[in-house]
Specification:
By secondary structure, the protein is mainly beta. It has one domain. The protein is built from no helices and seven strands. The strands form two sheets. It has a five-stranded antiparallel β-sheet with strand order 1-2-3-4-7, with no helix packed on it. The protein has a two-stranded antiparallel ribbon with strand order 5-6. A hairpin with a 5-residue loop joins strand 1 and strand 2. It is elongated, with a radius of gyration of 12 Å. The two termini are 17 Å apart.
Length: 73
């Protein structure tokens, strides 16, 4: 699994880029969980907007949806 350097309040895993090439996204798990095998609430899909295939300086991930889930759900 690939872990992404992200925010201080989530563990960001499984990065992908949307088909349009403008939106990298991650599945983010709550902090305090040992790894990506967590199942429960507080899961997030987070997006990062790109411009000309580059993230803006100091760009941050933005939560698109918060859901109950995890590996195996």
């Amino acid at each position: 699994m690939s872990r992404v350097a992200g925010s201080a309040d989530t563990q960001d895993w499984l990065s992908h880029i949307a088909r349009d090439g403008k939106w990298p996204y991650t599945i983010s798990y709550p902090m305090g969980r040992p790894d990506y095998t967590y199942i429960g609430g507080g899961m997030k899909m987070e997006l990062l907007r790109l411009k000309n295939s580059v993230a803006a300086t100091a760009a941050r991930l933005t939560a698109a949806i918060v859901f109950y889930g995890g590996q195996g759900c």
